[in-house]
Amino acid sequence: MAQGFCNAGDAGTFQWTASPPPSTYQQGIGFDVRPHVTGWNRALQREMLVRVSTTDLESARPRAVRIPMETPRVPVRSFFFSGDHGADRFLAATQPDSPAGRTPPQKSGLSTPIAGKTRIHPPKDVIKLEDRLQYLLQPSLETILSERSLEFPFVPFPYQMEGIAFLYAREAAVLADEMGLGKTMQAITAIRLLLRCGEIRSVLLVCPKPLVSNWQQEFAQWAPEIPVAIVEGDHQRRRWQWNLADVPVKIANYELILRDRELFEGTDLSGTDQLKFDLAVLDEAQRIKNRHSTTSQIARAISRRRNWALTGTPVENCAEDLVGIFEFLVPGHLSSEMKPSKMGRCASDYIIRRTKDKVLTEMPPKMFRDAAIDLLPEQRETYRLAEDDGVLRLSEMGDGATIQHVFELVLRLKQICNFDPATGTSAKLERLEADLEEVAASGRKALVFSQWVGTLRRLSKRLSRFGTLEYHGKIPPKRRNNIIEEFRNAPDKHVLLISYGAGGVGLNLQFCEYVFLFDRWWNPAIEDQAVNRAHRIGAAGPVTVTRFLVSDTIEERIHLVLEEKRELFETILSGTDRPQTKMGLTQKEIFGLFDLQSPSGPIHYAA
Amino acid sequence: MTTSDVSTESPLGFLTVVEDRKHGLFGGYLVLNRAGRPLEFHCTAPVRANRAQEILYGPTLRPYLYGEQIGRTLLEQGKHGTGMVLTDCEPMLSVGEFITSPVILVGEGGGGVSPSRNNPSKKTWRVDPAQGTEPKLHFFEVAGQRLALRRNENAQQRDAVAQSLEALATSLDLSEPFERIRAAIDEARRGGQ
Description:
The structure holds 2 protein chains of 2 kinds.
Chain A: E1 4-8, E2 14-18, H1 39-45, E3 76-80, H2 89-94, H3 129-136, H4 141-147, H5 158-169, E4 172-175, H6 183-196, E5 203-207, H7 212-222, E6 228-230, H8 235-242, E7 249-253, H9 254-259, H10 261-265, E8 276-283, H11 294-301, E9 303-310, H12 319-329, H13 340-347, E10 351-352, H14 356-359, E11 366-373, H15 377-397, H16 403-418, H17 427-441, E12 446-450, H18 453-462, E13 468-471, H19 477-489, E14 495-499, H20 500-503, E15 514-517, H21 524-531, E16 543-550, H22 554-574, H23 587-592
Parallel strand pairs in A: 4-9, 4-10, 5-7, 5-8, 6-7, 8-9, 11-16, 12-14, 12-15, 13-14, 15-16
Antiparallel strand pairs in A: 1-2
Chain B: E1 12-20, E2 24-32, E3 38-44, H1 51-57, H2 61-77, E4 84-87, E5 103-106, H3 115-118, E6 137-142, E7 145-150, H4 155-171, H5 176-191
């Protein structure tokens, strides 16, 4: 190895300098070497022994793991459909030579395309997978409507499309939307679609008499191409109308189907065949809540494949009401013994119910104010005498006192709360007049509800300066539409005095912003219906509802009962497991209004 | 089995896959007439790759499962000839290797995005597509709806597809039938077992 050293240069670099070669010296050293005799010398002279060993370098074949990668067969389920989901057989049948057939809607300024993707879901009672898929694989409702060129005067709300899809898919259904959400329009559109798809050919629509013309108008608006016949007139005329083959929709009132019951039951002596329908629709279906009533029996006798019930109040008084409606829709599906929560679950797939606060979030609010009123002194005295006298008489009757006797007393006391029969004074009227001053001064309109025609007539005289009109059972039906139109259009008519019985359903009075419940109905659902004459789609502004309640009278006690009924309604329709509330008024409770002891035996229904 | 009749009258096939973490991949194939009405529907039992397939197929696993195992099997069940097959899953485009009809991607093909892209919690992932595993796409629009074909489809084919879909796409949302398929698969899973 070269040796050297390095030192630093001037510029901080290192330089390598080789070392000079080393000096060497030699010195002789002599040794006398004599081999020492050992056994090793001999051993060194022997020949070497070589041993050979062999190693096999060839290794064993490695073991391989085989992983099959072939494509396994994937199981597949297949379903086939006709693709012909209803040609327009109805139109083909009614055009062009059908006398009742109307021209299908042409493209017009009214036509409005509908956006959205409302799916048609199968009802739970459709079990077969293939049938369920048939529903799920259909295009959206909007596509189907568009495909059939079904046009609408207004764009339906999304919840209305849901309602139409609900009805369209069901053979049995309750459309139980809160009043004012457009049940009529939804039912008409579903009917229209089913007719246009050829799934039904004949429809019977039964409604309360005052609503017949309303249905006719709604059909003209929402399904102008569908021929509609109002069944009315004498026996001969009705028979002819019932048998009009080219009119797919027939509208009749409840009283009329009672008169023509033999045609529905197939017992007509003249040999006329039993009437048959593909679809029967009952409007205000609470009319059949009592399954023992004649109306209910005849409704159930109608020969039909599908049936729908329309009602904003499927439970008016008690759960039995819903059982009555279901006896028409799906006999035996509900029973009176069911707890409300279970009944709600069993009925849930058949019922669709939406409330305004849920679906019309942009709708003007509905504000309630309970006007607590103290009776005027003379009214209070009359009331006290009447109550004391009535209670005394009921007490004296003992076990002979019936529910009728109690009701009579209740009605008498309620009437005194309205007007003192002796002097005609009324604390409620004074309050109402004060409120109406403001209503009229602001150019607005108000509805005043009472259960008595007599009360309404008295009010009419006393409130005439506000421009009053009356709408109740004493007004001939033919005049009623004109009264509504006058109230709507005349700027000097500010008050419509209206009875719960005649004006509780079917009227569209959304131009009113004030509702007064001069006296209370037995049933919160009826009150809701009344209020919703004004608070419905198209309401211009907030609706203020004033409920008159005279303190320390029968009205206050009834108010508590109404609140309990409202709870029952919520329990059934929400399907929740809330504690069960009282199922209507028991006899004990009715007697309890006057702190009286009840004779034995329950009374199940209060109203 | 599908044919290559890209006319304005022939039915349309819609093919998609629903991923289920527990069971695997469910394939669905819906054939609609031009009015949007269902003519036939097919769905597969769940398909799940085993560990060996995951390792050995690597980045080609999804196109294999979607296109070859599921898509091809479903299309073989079809009784109606379809002018084209639409899918919303990008890996399903590989089914085009087994049929003569064009396979069109509707939208962005989100149904076929690989989990690694979808899973931001995963620490490493490929930023470049594996060589030859992801088809190069030619995007185009018909009536405002974004569609894509594989680049190896010729221009003439693309024009024919666009022309065929032009009238339909103005009235029908081409992504909507996939919702029906998913609803039907869900129903079949719950009710058909």
